[in-house]
Amino acid sequence: MTAQAYVALSPETMADRLGALPVLVDRVGPPQSWQVREVGDGNLNLVFIVKGSAGQAIVKQALPYVRLVGESWPLPLKRSFFEYNALIRQAARDPGSVPDVWHFDEAQAIVVMEFLTPHVILRHALVEGRQVSGLGERLGKFCARTLFRGSDLSMKPAERKADLAMFAGNVELCDITENLVFSDPYFDAEMNRHTPGLEGIVARLRADLSLKVAAQHLKMAFTSRAETMLHGDLHTGSVMVTDTETKVIDPEFATYGPIGFDVGMLLANFLMAHLSQPGHEKGPGDRAGQQDWLLSVVTTIWENFVTEFSHLWRTERRGILYQASLYENQGHGLASEQALNDLLGQIWRDTLGFCGVEMHRRILGLAHNADFERIADEGRRAACEARALAMGRQLMLGAGVIPSITTVTDMARRMDKENHL
Amino acid sequence: MTAQAYVALSPETMADRLGALPVLVDRVGPPQSWQVREVGDGNLNLVFIVKGSAGQAIVKQALPYVRLVGESWPLPLKRSFFEYNALIRQAARDPGSVPDVWHFDEAQAIVVMEFLTPHVILRHALVEGRQVSGLGERLGKFCARTLFRGSDLSMKPAERKADLAMFAGNVELCDITENLVFSDPYFDAEMNRHTPGLEGIVARLRADLSLKVAAQHLKMAFTSRAETMLHGDLHTGSVMVTDTETKVIDPEFATYGPIGFDVGMLLANFLMAHLSQPGHEKGPGDRAGQQDWLLSVVTTIWENFVTEFSHLWRTERRGILYQASLYENQGHGLASEQALNDLLGQIWRDTLGFCGVEMHRRILGLAHNADFERIADEGRRAACEARALAMGRQLMLGAGVIPSITTVTDMARRMDKENHL
Questions:
Q1: What's the CA gap between B273 and B267, in Å, rounded?
Q2: Overall CATH class of domain B14-114
Q3: Which residue in A178, A329, A332 is closest to B157 by CB distance?
Q4: ipTM confidence score
């Protein structure tokens, strides 16, 4: 099949197309038993659940265009190749953190993988007011392990450079990030949209020269600081959960970039979830507990990231940077701790900046998030979004001086009580 | 010939091997007229001058090992591919700055190029006390043009990412820089050597934890901050001059890295030339004029770099970073100037750091430089080198606070009068 020209799958053709695949017959059952549903609700791809007599599988196939927009916005199939390569690396770097990949067909842009059940998309769970035990720990460790182990702190230089070169081919998905995240929100770009009522704060943000400078510094960091393999799109829509389990999906935006990018984007989505909660209240204050929990997750993600990153630094620093031969082996273990502190400081500042940008682009750009979008009342939605916009600015411009994650969660609590329209 | 297995050239085989090459017959003359000399004095390659009835050419061929060390240190032939690709990019980005390339044979690792005459290696000229008019202007502009035009400030993103990926293949030459520049000088590494008498200052540097941390931060910047295509080895031995002309050669270490790397390495070599001059005096103070001139070149390189980089920023910023659509086109030209100031500030801090590292590794590591090596008297040499070591430390640890190039040249003048043994 690999040699055949690309054809998009459909529920009707699934058994014919993939019915001979041993791994599917083994784990799902004979193709005669298959029931197939297309369930993709993302912006880009086809996603099928294949259910058979023996089990279920996910079949994800890239389309040669952006699903959200249509054939007028072509997008290369090779993103499937990058997703596959990111998934197998994440699985090796943080075992159990991502779905098991069972099969990859590069020409057909198909990844066949484990069907996660009864998992749901985290963002939907958060909108509904659900909580997930162990969430912050799991995500903080995922960031630390995948980001540490994809860098020159851990990898052999030739392997890291080969991966850097490979993922540099993910041009078109990086282009989406480069434009939609870092530039479009800060001027009146064609694909932007925002909730009516935000005009005042939008005008103030777009007139804020220091903010526009900070956004482009972050863009330059994203395009040039090839520190590690990023997930590249690590928001709460890229996480699937049960009440007790967490899996990360959809790394097709994977590229080499700054360690703080994934962490910042992730924290931003929890802060937006927090600030969106008043829009989902049925009665005054009935989301207060959920809001507290969301901020506790922000703290837990960051603290687990730092703890795990520091642990890996002290136990697995086998790359070419900050070598033990130079530090510990010379009796200079304190230099290693000094360097770790410096690096965590840099990652912290980056995290805050990327966090702020993500809060802006989800409200001002093309790709909005359900946390705000599902607030039916436009006035309430705008009020929540304005707080997120104001907070995003404060994070970006305060990145160099904000001392701790507590300052960030305190800021979120304060913003939640203020009017920024 | 391309399909044949690699064979090292010799003066005797040159006419047989390259005699049918039209560009050589045209520009050098028929092979019967050729006289061939091997003149390589670098650490890595074979270099031949081919002289014929019509002209001369340089034939440079990589050896499959490090010439300086021998076959025990293998080094891949593909460095010739990176040198060729860097040369044609530098020629396009700063016309006239590098020798014209006439022919490239990837399988034989041969670059045939213009013979520069009566040019000499700049380092030798500096040791002899010679001056070159226009040197600082030429080198400052070379840095600004090649570094700006190889970055996301100028290139199309897909082209920049393709070049990033290609040069990421230059693993083995990067490995030399990564080890010999950033790590070996800071501990008792096997290939190190230094002038007797330096033991005291060497011990102090290697016990300086903050310095060892700074060196590794710079190493991480070198390996991860893929801002632009670097020359990668831009010292005074990679520059050929007449009294009035300057050409840059030997970019086989080319890779994507931080803009400040080339600039810092270049300034370091002029500062070392300055600090080495007392070792070349025939009578007290007879190199004072040369010292003043060398520091004026340091100033001129930096000032021309800033002026030209700023000019390109204002007139050629057509990449995806700091777009005019976001700044000038919105009436926010001041944001563009603010961003330029920030970026130049970052480049300045990087430059100072890399400058300091280069001053250390040329005295403590494997590859020393003629500026100091040609000082026959070991005591005088050690005194000069100690000043450079002390200054290197001050630049690395002061990178965040040193306000101007004048502070740097003043520091060099002061160091020159002090005893740092």
A1: 10
A2: alpha beta
A3: A178
A4: 0.96
